[in-house]
């Protein structure tokens, strides 16, 4: 339980620190999102390397996505993805109805505009993990109601 609290505090401080620096003229807001996504990418690469060292090779990208939704997400966020959908043409949609990094924020609509900055790290986390598994992807996230979020993955196998 302490690990979870530390992760949430660290994540909140990373976001707040980067945006605070941008407000003081040390960077731009757009660069903050990119920096958070890059940090998540590197962490995702490292985590997936550690989590898959003793697992068998994946058969296809669907097996990889199932691993991300079950094992990877459970290890990082203490729950599985609530819904995984695909159009079988290179797009997956992962839905988490109670996303841990957003549950600390109010469920009010006034915080929806701040949600994307709290999702950038996670988008990078997923993209980095997939990258280490041989899938080049573009990961975006959307929040229509708090604390639920949807991640859209567009991929191509390397």
What does this structure look like?
It is found in: Endoplasmic reticulum; Golgi apparatus, cis-Golgi network. Belongs to the TRAPP small subunits family. BET3 subfamily. It comes from Anhinga anhinga. Helix 1 (2-23) packs antiparallel against helix 2 and helix 2 (29-51) packs parallel to helix 5 (115-132). This protein has helices spanning 2-23, 29-51, 61-77, 100-103, 115-132, and strands at residues 83-86, 91-96, 135-142, 149-157. The model has no long low-confidence stretch (mean pLDDT 84). A hairpin with a 6-residue loop joins strand 3 and strand 4 (149-157). The longest helix is centred in the N-terminal third of the chain and has 23 residues, at 29-51. Strands 1-2-4-3 form a four-stranded antiparallel β-sheet, with helices on one face. It has a single domain (4-157), classed as Trafficking protein particle complex subunit 3 (Muramoyl-pentapeptide Carboxypeptidase, domain 2). The chain is α+β, with helices and mostly antiparallel strands and 158 residues long.
Q: Can I get a quick summary?
A:
The chain is of the alpha+beta class.
Task: Indicate the topology.
Elements: H1 2-23, H2 29-51, H3 61-77, E1 83-86, E2 91-96, H4 100-103, H5 115-132, E3 135-142, E4 149-157
Antiparallel strand pairs: 1-2, 2-4, 3-4
Helix pairs in contact: 1-2, 2-5
| CATH topology title | Muramoyl-pentapeptide Carboxypeptidase, domain 2
* Low-confidence runs of at least 5 consecutive residues: none
What count of structural domains? 1
Could you give me the name of the CATH homologous superfamily? Trafficking protein particle complex subunit 3
